[in-house]
User: What shape does this take?
Amino acid sequence: MKLKTKKSAVKRFKVTKTGKILRGRQMASHLKSAKSKSAKTRYKKKAFVSKPEKKNVKRLLPYNL
Assistant: This one.
């Protein structure tokens, strides 16, 4: 049986060549005037999905898109 990919997950996550999953950071979208410059710079960088959550994300992305 073919597995369907969750399209919302495709937009949010990226799988690297080594199999790690990248995600965006929270708190970067609004109320930026109250945040420091260093914090705003930190929000631009991608982060890796934690090991406990990796299993759930892999279930949403069965074909590593």
Observations:
- The helical segments are 7-12, 37-44, 51-60.
